[in-house]
Amino acid sequence: MTHAVPFNDLARGLRADRTVLDRAMAGVVDSGWLVLGPANAQWERDLASYLGPARASLHVLGVASGTDALELALRGAAEAVDGGDRSLVLTAANAGAYTSVATIRAGLQPCYADVDPVTHLLTADTIASALSDDAISSKTLAVVVTHLYGRAADMQPIVELCRARGIFLVEDCAQSLGARSSAGAAGTFGDAATFSFYPTKNLGALGDGGAVVTSHAALHDNIRQLRQYGWGTKYHVTRRGGVNSRLDELQAAVLSARLPLLDDRNARRREVIAAYRDAAQGSVEVLPAEGAGHAAHLAVAVCADRQRFEEHLDEHGIGHDVHYPLPDHLQVGLAGGTAPAPSLPVTERLAQSVISLPLFPELNDSEIERVRDALATFRSE
Ligand SMILES: *Cc1c(COP(=O)(O)O)cnc(C)c1O
User: Fold this and answer.
1) Is 144 in the pocket of ligand 1 (CB under 6 A)?
2) Alpha-carbon Rg of the chain, whole angstroms?
3) 342 lines ligand 1 (CB under 6 A)
4) Residues 6+ apart with CB under 8 A from 212
5) What is the Cα–Cα distance from 333 to 311, expressed in whole angstroms?
6) Span 302-307, mean pLDDT?
7) Distance between CA atoms of 324 and 335, rounded to whole angstroms?
8) Does the Cβ of 196 fall within 6 Å of ligand 1?
9) Using CA atoms, how far apart are residues 203 and 69, in angstroms rounded to an integer?
10) How far apart are CA 103 and CA 88, in angstroms?
């Protein structure tokens, strides 16, 4: 079904950036380098200084996707942590299953903690509650925290909890590039952080792309080898578990060219969400995206009567989607990977009531007004 106000429209942002994209791509073609060359090296430096201008120790590795980034970070974790028989990766079940898929690919097993009902994120409390089960805590190798919808999780207590238990901490920043607080940018708190530059993310490549970020030199070196066949030096496989997951020069150059535009676009995304939130009436609540701690990746509302709200949006020509309809522990393709079966009442309830509204920086004022009008006129029965 096509809507007068599309859920997303990548063509608008590509048109706006046409000149810088053309220049970046021409530079790569002229250079003669296509994979892991100077554009990738430049991009790794650009992202490191964007995330932690004062952190000389922050290392970035360009890889082929956000899911690969998660897999490589977890393969790195298995080597970095003296794991013994620890094989569980504890994460949220409401974040689109990417971490679960990557965990299984890394030869590990996903397990789940519930999320906070207000922020929809993992907290130190929900993680601690899952770890109060000995069967989980004795086997947990890593925790993956997803900064879902662009909202940065409260990391300090989670860092302390993981450090005290010797658990490796990964931040999944696929939806949160640009979120930062006085304590630092999302992606600079854990042992490693992962990013996706899939075209719909806040910073999109012209195809797939991802990154792993870490401030541990040994982990950086390990993952640098794993992303390219496990090579220590060319044609010498020194690490087991290597894959081929590199960032193309074209994508790296595009990302460097677009990065300076990101903060303004994230600010515009936050403005759109604030306008929706302001218009929403009693039975729909648009989740807040205030301040620089929120990258405003998705405009998510909660509505107990979601089916009627979806019909109402269709009648008003407003695009919509659900992020995400089915929690990881209920996905058939992930079944059998989890032990013991989790109790996740908040996750399951939210999956029935979340709904995402149109959000991209190029939405125009009259489109935003149409969405506001639909929000203001919705009444549940
Ligand atoms: C998009 C996304 C990923 C996966 O990134 P890909 O580049 O598509 O592999 C991982 N985690 C989250 C939260 C995402 O939104």
Assistant:
1) no
2) 21
3) no
4) 60, 61, 63, 69, 72, 73, 76, 192, 193, 194, 195, 223
5) 30
6) 96
7) 17
8) yes
9) 16
10) 9
Distance 198 CA to ligand 1 centre (A): 7
pLDDT at 327 over 70: yes
Give the residue-averaged pLDDT of 310-325: 98
Q: Is 172 in the pocket of ligand 1 (CB under 6 A)?
A: yes
Q: What is the per-residue pLDDT for 340?
A: 62
Which residues have C-beta within 8 Å of that of residue 284, sequence separation ≥ 6? 301, 302, 303, 309, 375, 378
Alpha helices by DSSP H, 166-242:
217-226
Q: What is the pLDDT of residue 338?
A: 53
SS3 210: strand
What spacing in Å lies between the alpha carbon of 27 and ligand 1's midpoint?
28
Q: How confident is the model at residue 53 (pLDDT cuts 50, 70, 90)?
A: confident
| Its pTM surpasses 0.85 | yes
Exposed (0-12), middle (13-18) or buried (19+): which is 49, by Cβ within 10 Å? Answer: middle
| Confidence at residue 379, expressed as pLDDT on a 0 to 100 scale | 85
Q: What number does the ligand 1 atom closest to the CA of 200 have?
A: 1
CA 221/CA 208 separation, integer angstroms: 23
Query: Tens digits of per-residue pLDDT, 358-373?
Result: 999 999 999 999 999 9
Q: Is 150 in the pocket of ligand 1 (CB under 6 A)?
A: no
C-beta of 175 in contact with ligand 1 (< 6 A): yes
Mean residue pLDDT of the chain comes to 95
Ligand 1 centre distance from Cα of residue 365 (Å): 29
207 lines ligand 1 (CB under 6 A): no
- From the list 292, 282, 274, 281, the residue with the least C-alpha distance to 368 is 274
231 lines ligand 1 (CB under 6 A): no
**Ligand 1 center from residue 187 Cα (angstroms):** 14
Helices 365-377, 262-279: crossing angle, 10 deg rounding:
30
